[in-house]
Amino acid sequence: MVVAGVVVGGLVVVVVGGLVVVVVGGTVVVVVVGGATVVVVVSGTARLNMSCEKPKAAWRPAAAPIPGGRVLDASGSMEAGAEVGAVASASSELGENAAKAAIARRAITTQVANAKSRVNLTPVNFRVLNNRTTMRQHAWNRMKARAPCGGKPHREKQPRAVVPPSLPSREMKIDQYLTADSIAAGADYAIWAESLGFDGLFTAETGHDPFLPIAAAAGRTDTIQFGTAIAVAFARSPMTVAYTAWDLAEATGGRFLLGLGTQIRAHIVRRFNMPWSRPGPRLREYIAALRAIWETWQTGNPLSFDGDFYEFKLMTPFFSPPPMPHADIPIYIAGVGEYMCRVAGETADGFHVHPFHTLGYLEEVVMPNMEKGAELAGRSVADVELVTGAFVITGRTEEEVGAARMAAKLQIAFYASTPAYRGVLELHDWDFGPELTAMSKRGDWMAMGELIPDEVVDQVAVTAPLDSLGSAVRAKYEGRLDRVGFYFPDLPGQPPLVDLTDEEWAGLVAGVHA
């Protein structure tokens, strides 16, 4: 039974159950059955590749060049619930005009011609991109072409080279994270952070609302920026968040950065009692809805937003706040996997990189995927501010440094035990994830840190004496990230391992700013 069919110029795409048939000008037929068998017919000549009956994952074929600097990219990523039925939807996008359809036909013909020597097409998501294929992508495609059938590319275990910074040089900002346990104390904390030279203060949605401390501190500070890191997007309607962010942007004089995250299904459904579906596409649309609402308030144009997840059609003057000079509110998002990195590059003003990362993960996963998203939107990845709370290990004595290192191992072990963060481990061929997961299910938390080698700690965290920690963090991230904060791991149920004085905090700030 045909479940999808699209006709675009001379391009026909038909999906029949698990069978995908693409016909171009009646001369080329590509058939993919269950993601396993590829049949290509070119001018009456058929080629059959049945070497992979059960591939473990879709391979990503090299992009075919198209005149005008465009490439046809076959992206097999399904992270974060990427759109189902994308073959039909992408073909529909190609059908915006006949010229695009002609480009697509030439691209697919090129792919088929290349397949005469080795068929490597897969049932994936065809999309025309305004981008270039990076040297890293070419290398990755070559590795996949040499991989065992259905397997992952073989990586030679060797010391990882230090990758040079990829962002333009600009002043690095340093942020503090709110630790106060009340709204009044939060305002005092903001005054303290501003007095020491911190550029930003971020709140989190844990045991308290993330917005209220910012409202309390807005009128008592002058220069420090405020942000949520993060507020849970799907626990609220975009309209609700639009009002709150608008008021905070006005109250802070444009110093508010709206940080959003998806959380996970269990919390959205069971803690917040809200619907859950395809977090990546939903967050992208959430951001578009926010900007549509703000545009209506600022310009007075009618509100008309119609998406797959949200629809906003009503906004009267009585419910509209007046225009203000800070209506272009920056939106930051947080994420871990490749899909959310692409969403950040495509739509966000900033991206909160999770503290559990390495320079290799930044350069080989985060940045390339952000570049893909940015190119889709016709902008540069330099338009997106990158932020993180950097793991740091320090102390005044060897005993303090040793305790901080043990605490870091425990925290790293916690993240490594969670499948959502498994990508960092896989990139470096670290194989202790499953064992850590099993230990966490047994509640064997304190022993988990023993499985983390010193090599892993050194790649994740910055270790330096207290008087040079700021400059060490700057040396690691300069040219890679725009804003950093200090993530001091502590032992569960214990007071802070390193309790800094104001003078020591000021030294850290100066070290990052130097």
Provide an overview of this structure.
The protein is an alpha/beta fold. Helices cover 38% and strands 19% of the residues. The strands form four sheets. The chain has an eight-stranded parallel barrel with strand order 10-11-12-14-17-18-19-21, surrounded by seven helices.
Number of strands: 21
Strand order of the largest sheet: 10-11-12-14-17-18-19-21
Q: Rough shape?
A: globular
Task: Determine the fraction of residues in helical runs and give it as a percent range.
Answer: 25-40%
Helix count equals: 17
Q: How much of the polypeptide forms β-strand, as a percent range?
A: 15-25%
**N-to-C span:** 66 Å
Give the averaged pLDDT, no decimals.
Answer: 77
Low confidence ranges: 1-162
Keywords:
17 helices, 514 residues, alpha/beta, 21 strands, disordered N terminus
